[in-house]
Design goal:
Elements: H1 2-18, H2 24-36, H3 50-67, E1 69-72, E2 75-78, H4 81-94, E3 100-103, E4 109-114, E5 151-152, E6 166-170, H5 174-185, E7 199-207, E8 214-220, E9 230-240, E10 247-256, H6 257-260, E11 266-272, E12 281-282, E13 290-291, E14 313-321, E15 329-334, E16 339-344, E17 358-367, E18 378-384, E19 389-393, E20 400-404, E21 414-420
Helix pairs in contact: 1-2, 1-3
């Protein structure tokens, strides 16, 4: 609500300066101003004279300085001048110098950063790490079989992506930092939802605990309803170690308006070495994950999504370790072409140095709105590279794993639907 009032006041002020509010051309200029005005840095571009543009910048700067608020998860939160300066310092540390930059239709900026100067290498354990651009060898039999029922979604930067020797890194904003800090302050809210408190629900297939060196699977892509306080996730999770020191890697897609500011379906990665208590993060908000592909990177939006009674799209992820030749945990994608997107160096994972013990494919929904315990809907289809699985759902009244589905061209794999309507699952 506060954010809405702030934008309204800025609109009226801009219109007062540049002309009559009833003029269609003026409204267009307002749209340009608001579209390119970020809440962490005043950036204004309009097709008015330089003198008027300067007055617009000054007024916007005064308004936002006086308000001194940032948007966090769809809500306005006050920050002090000292906190604001600390965020600025952190942004300068995290965002590396760019050779070239791309801006997406959603306003995300991806900077092309020197591959040997990327944020991952700021991790204390990676000070002397040499970036490896691809695995030493590829295992035989890697990759999906073709199917007439699904297509691989497009994702990545245009025109071949970043120049040679550079990799795309999503530029972190002040809003991003505030969201991450809010997560660390409120870790207690990550618990199963019940009739009295908000939280999460999850449903997945699980491979029986053993010693594994890799995982692969295709996840169907969807446009989920985007609302504040809610998130949707489809993912592959590999993990090892004791519960309190769980080492884990997650890859998949996410719809999270609080995190990204919109309802786009994005690729994400997560990692931790202590069950997400103090270590690890999403995407590249902390050093550790090494980016090597020049076009596809975490945080990017999938262009093609599945529709009811229409085309079906998925994306095929692979996590593997070639421990005979190198010990990194590689992230790859398979579809129209094989891509080596990036990796997590073995040094990050004390309990996953050579293998992992747990493997899951499935979906996750989260609601942290204290005013409701209504669960979001969940939908998905997964193709996993095994037939020896067990099922898990924390609330079978709302979410389930379907029976094995037959899919032409996908022999030797377990194909299943999962999800449910959500609603008042705990009443």
């Amino acid at each position: 609500m506060h954010d809405q009032l702030t934008r309204t006041s800025i609109k009226s002020t801009v219109l007062k300066i540049v002309g009559d509010a009833s003029t269609p051309d003026i409204d267009r200029k307002y749209v340009e101003v608001i579209k390119l005005c970020s809440w962490d840095k005043i950036l204004v571009f309009s097709r008015v004279s330089s003198g008027v543009e300067m007055r617009v910048v000054v007024v916007l700067a005064l308004l936002l300085w006086g308000i001194s608020h940032e948007v966090e998860g769809g809500r306005a939160t006050s920050i002090s001048k000292e906190e604001d300066l600390e965020l600025e310092r952190e942004l300068r540390r995290l965002n590396k110098p760019a050779i070239k930059s791309f801006q997406t239709e959603y306003g995300d900026i991806f900077d092309c950063v020197d591959i040997n100067k990327q944020p991952a290498l700021d991790h204390p354990l990676l000070k002397n790490h040499r970036v490896q651009k691809k695995p030493s060898v590829f295992p035989k039999g890697l990759g999906p079989k073709t199917s007439a029922k699904t297509q691989s979604s497009k994702i990545g930067l245009p025109d071949g992506g970043c120049p040679e020797g550079t990799v795309p890194i999503k530029r972190i904003t002040k809003r991003d930092l505030l969201w991450m800090k809010s997560l660390k302050r409120n870790t207690t809210k990550f618990h199963p939802m019940d009739a009295n408190t908000p939280g999460y629900h999850q449903v997945f297939t699980r491979q029986y605990p053993s010693k594994y060196y890799g995982a692969q699977g295709g996840l169907s892509l969807h446009s989920e309803p985007a609302a504040n306080h809610q998130s949707h996730r489809a993912m592959i999770t590999v993990s090892g170690g004791s519960p309190d020191k769980l080492n884990a890697i997650q890859v998949g897609w996410m719809v999270n308006k609080d995190a990204y500011g919109d309802g786009a379906t994005r690729m994400f990665v997560f990692w931790t070495v202590d069950n997400f208590v103090n270590t690890g993060c999403r995407d590249l908000f902390c050093p550790g994950y090494v980016q090597v592909d020049s076009s596809v990177a975490p945080g990017m939006t999938f262009y093609n999504l599945s529709t009811v009674d229409g085309p079906q799209f998925d994306y095929y992820f692979v996590i593997l370790q070639m421990n005979a030749t190198d010990e990194n945990w590689w992230l790859m994608s398979l579809g129209d072409e094989t891509r080596t997107i990036g990796y997590w160096p073995q040094a990050l994972f004390p309990d996953m140095k050579e293998s992992f013990t747990n493997l899951e494919w499935g979906g996750y929904v989260f609601n942290d709105d204290p005013k409701t315990t209504t669960s979001p809907q969940m939908e998905g289809f997964a193709i996993v590279s095994t037939e020896e699985v067990s099922f898990f759902t924390d609330n079978p009244d709302c979410y389930r794993v379907g029976d094995k589905a037959d899919l032409p061209g996908w022999s030797g794999a377990y194909n299943f639907y999962y999800g449910g309507p959500g609603g008042n699952c705990n009443h």
